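Folded chain entry
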Amino acid sequence: MAKVFDSICKKHNIPYFLYAGSLLGAFRHKGFIPWDDDFDVALLRNDYKRLMRILPDELPSSIVLQNNDTDHNYYYFYAKLRDRNSFLDEGLYDHPFKERGIFIDIFPLDRLWPWVQRLPLQSYAFTLLRGDTNCGDKTMRKIRMLTWFNRHISFPILRGFCRITGAKPLMCDLGIPFHRVYNLRDVFPLSTLSFEGTEFSVPSNCSSMLKDMYGDFMKLPEDLENVYHHADILEFYK
């Protein structure tokens, strides 16, 4: 899936880079962190928007784009690529989704004021799901309304405010609960690192970005038996 994603980005000259655990894996392990089980990439917001328009026509039938347009009940504000020949149960929060195969997370980054990015405008969706583990129709209608309002009204207004007031910090876009601040100079010009034998794009200053995310990022967790994994259930189909 990552190779397909990379080839599409190269074909259309869309700059992306490994992010979060995948960037750490490439830098420290030259591939997956041994206890990790997903793949993360990031793009600047304008590149992300262009990619969302391109991917549906470029992906093979075994991979599907999952975002607010393609999945009726999807309420995250970052996209996923899903493998249609597998099933992954992450617990409560992904139960309403139409596609639930193994995935690649695609994160948009934008220039935002940190206090704006931290506004808990989408977090009520998680509160609703915790109160209704069956994901009933009433709960999902509320979540869809909340997602629509934030997507079309509150978030565009807040992004406009950040542009007008000259926000400089580079952060995950609104609605994404990751609050690290990055420097654009640490990202471009992009470089490459090997990940499981394939070269992928990475930020120019990986060490700085990884330090921002993880602190002493070369130190392994002391209790590897209790490191978090995504999957409660994982199945693959022929």
